[in-house]
């Protein structure tokens, strides 16, 4: 029977550098001979990717926050059941671009939905699954949004719905990520994402190596 793998989530505001960190982590794990899988939320499955297209494009106020929460959770159920848990059971390291920490930050602190509602829904829908380690890439939203818009414009990707919301929203999201880390420091590593990408990626790799050890 395969030894249980690990589940790592990479969190942070828009433009924090999650994609670059995940690429660097996958290269590092491969070099170490560790079987690893990169995935993302919303997404990770065919159904989740369809919901992603609905959730991340268009007007920032298009969805009622409760509808947004339910769609995010529906995508997560598919993701957990068909991707994350099977890979962990096979002994792999799963690295996910966002997980429930983003729901707490964006739909909870950002949108104003009650945190008990989010937690109860998470418990009921996916058994309260939490990552073994959450990397929180922390950057001032003013810097992050500018980075994110530049990246989306360059790639012509229509996923800028949250970037279009006001800075107060993004400040609340950032505070939530830091609060989550402070409440469970044993499961979080906060990384200064205002540094050069190489430094951010090195810090993320060190945190994951510590978990593997």
From TrEMBL:
<dbReference type="GO" id="GO:0006233">
    <property type="term" value="P:dTDP biosynthetic process"/>
</dbReference>
<comment type="function">
    <text>Phosphorylation of dTMP to form dTDP in both de novo and salvage pathways of dTTP synthesis.</text>
</comment>
<keyword id="KW-0545">Nucleotide biosynthesis</keyword>
<dbReference type="Pfam" id="PF02223">
    <property type="entry name" value="Thymidylate_kin"/>
</dbReference>
<dbReference type="InterPro" id="IPR027417">
    <property type="entry name" value="P-loop_NTPase"/>
</dbReference>
<dbReference type="InterPro" id="IPR018095">
    <property type="entry name" value="Thymidylate_kin_CS"/>
</dbReference>
<keyword id="KW-0067">ATP-binding</keyword>
<keyword id="KW-0808">Transferase</keyword>
<dbReference type="GO" id="GO:0005829">
    <property type="term" value="C:cytosol"/>
</dbReference>
<comment type="similarity">
    <text>Belongs to the thymidylate kinase family.</text>
</comment>
<feature type="domain" description="Thymidylate kinase-like">
    <location>
        <begin position="10"/>
        <end position="202"/>
    </location>
</feature>
<dbReference type="GO" id="GO:0006227">
    <property type="term" value="P:dUDP biosynthetic process"/>
</dbReference>
<feature type="binding site">
    <location>
        <begin position="12"/>
        <end position="19"/>
    </location>
    <ligand>
        <name>ATP</name>
    </ligand>
</feature>
<keyword id="KW-0418">Kinase</keyword>
<keyword id="KW-0547">Nucleotide-binding</keyword>
<dbReference type="InterPro" id="IPR018094">
    <property type="entry name" value="Thymidylate_kinase"/>
</dbReference>
<dbReference type="GO" id="GO:0006235">
    <property type="term" value="P:dTTP biosynthetic process"/>
</dbReference>
<protein>
    <recommendedName>
        <fullName>Thymidylate kinase</fullName>
        <ecNumber>2.7.4.9</ecNumber>
    </recommendedName>
</protein>
<dbReference type="InterPro" id="IPR039430">
    <property type="entry name" value="Thymidylate_kin-like_dom"/>
</dbReference>
<dbReference type="GO" id="GO:0005524">
    <property type="term" value="F:ATP binding"/>
</dbReference>
<dbReference type="GO" id="GO:0004798">
    <property type="term" value="F:dTMP kinase activity"/>
</dbReference>
């Amino acid at each position: 029977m395969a030894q249980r793998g690990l589940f790592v989530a990479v969190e942070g505001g828009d433009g924090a550098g999650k994609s670059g960190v995940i690429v660097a982590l996958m290269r590092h794990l491969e070099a170490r001979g560790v079987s690893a899988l990169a995935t993302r939320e919303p997404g990770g499955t065919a159904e989740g990717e369809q919901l992603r297209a609905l959730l991340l494009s268009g007007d920032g106020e298009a969805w009622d926050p409760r509808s947004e929460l339910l769609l995010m959770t529906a995508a997560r159920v598919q993701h957990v059941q068909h991707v994350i848990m099977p890979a962990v059971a096979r002994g792999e390291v799963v690295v996910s671009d966002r997980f429930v920490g983003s729901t707490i930050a964006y739909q909870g602190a950002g949108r104003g939905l009650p945190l008990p509602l989010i937690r109860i829904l998470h418990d009921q829908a996916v058994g309260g699954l939490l990552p073994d380690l959450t990397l929180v890439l922390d950057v001032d939203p003013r810097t992050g949004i500018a980075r994110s818009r530049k990246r989306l414009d360059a790639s012509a990707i229509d996923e800028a719905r949250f970037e279009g919301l006001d800075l107060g929203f993004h400040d609340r999201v950032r505070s939530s990520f830091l609060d989550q880390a402070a409440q469970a420091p044993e499961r979080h590593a906060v990384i200064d994402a205002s540094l050069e990408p190489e430094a951010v990626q090195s810090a993320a790799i060190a945190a994951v190596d510590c978990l593997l050890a």
